[in-house]
Please model this.
Amino acid sequence: MNIAIYSRHLKPSDVQPVQELFEQLHAHQLLPHVYGPYFESMQGAIDFPGSVTVFETYDDLVLQDIKLMISLGGDGTILDTTTFVRDSGIPIMGINLGRLGFLASIQKNVISKAIESFVSGAYVLDERTLLHLDSNLPLFAETPFALNDLTLLKRDTSSMITVHTFINGEFLNSYWADGIIMATPTGSTGYSLSCGGPIIFPNSGNFVITPVAPHNLNVRPIVISDDSVVSFEVEGRARHFLCTLDSRYEQIDATHQIAIRKEDFSIYLVRLHGGNFLNTLREKLAWGLDKRN
Model:
């Protein structure tokens, strides 16, 4: 069975768990296909017990009939991974070598259990909704989608920007702010949360629009149905603004007209039995750990 592995760079602290991963894959007769630049960073540090091939693109994954994508790192690494998986339906197993790990929820001390669970089918696939970006001018090439969020932000001036926002063609509001976030339920625990947005359950069928440092203090985040189409027009004193999809960004200007809708495909995250969204919330947000209680 063909397995793909993606990460950004091998850190010295990651050598032991990554070595264990390759040994477990070999023991279960799983053939690893490693992202090329990551494979190069492992030379001399990892002793590969079996054959290893490399991949570079989405097409490589499809041609090799990959059955699982393993993401080694944190949540940002999983966001990178989605740009390779795209609409292939390949599930993503996030092994947390980073810090917080909302999405990369499998800890490095249970790598052996994780591989055994995959081989035996003892796992759950969590379906996650994506955002899709349409624009009157080209943006983000072959990957105009986001697992977490889209943001429109001021770029090269301290002056705030104005984001005119429409839902299904109807005017919602002109936000005077440092920017605006449109997040999926998955992204609701990210940038949106840090700006005062609500936590949304993964399968709730909603998006959230959250202003970043709004000038009008009575403006608050708003939750909308995920069958809505939200369009934005941006203006300000500066010529250029920043548009991001997850960890990717492009420069835009006032001539860009942007519309966001639910993507036609989903991403699937591997969850081991015994873990769930509520456990993740309590653990990652340290709920119930107040020493006064």
User: Anything to note?
Assistant: The chain has a mean pLDDT of 93. The longest strand covers residues 170-177.
